[in-house]
Amino acid sequence: MNRQSLLHIALAGFLGTSVMTVFSYILSHLSADNFREPQLLGKLLQGTLLPINSPISRPAGWVCHYSFGLGLATVFHNSWKHRENATPLLSGLIAGACSGTAAVIWWHNAFRLHPHPPLLRHDRFYLQLFIAHMLYSITVAETIKER
Q: Where are the transmembrane segments (predicted)?
């Protein structure tokens, strides 16, 4: 993979993660629920990999969030290299359903295993998380298609 391809994949991951994050923040504001994945990741890091009330937990949550997004964009790119006749929308919807389901399972287990998980309405969080992954995946697919 050449440098230009890596930059294009990084752009797709950054844009997809940003779309997902904006969606989650808007829904958080409208619903008064906390759907802010970077903030929740930071809280999950506290008491596990970082001390409780660590000043770096919030930035670490953002780094984790965007790192996951960049990594997933790389996986999508590699899996879509050989797709034939699949539109970016269809590819994005399929990838979104798969990644959304995996994310719900991951977050459910993270909350269940954490000694002091953040308080939130899990059913609402999981629904918005699934939709956010659909938006992420469609954005990544459309961005990668442009190449």
A: 6-27, 86-105, 125-144
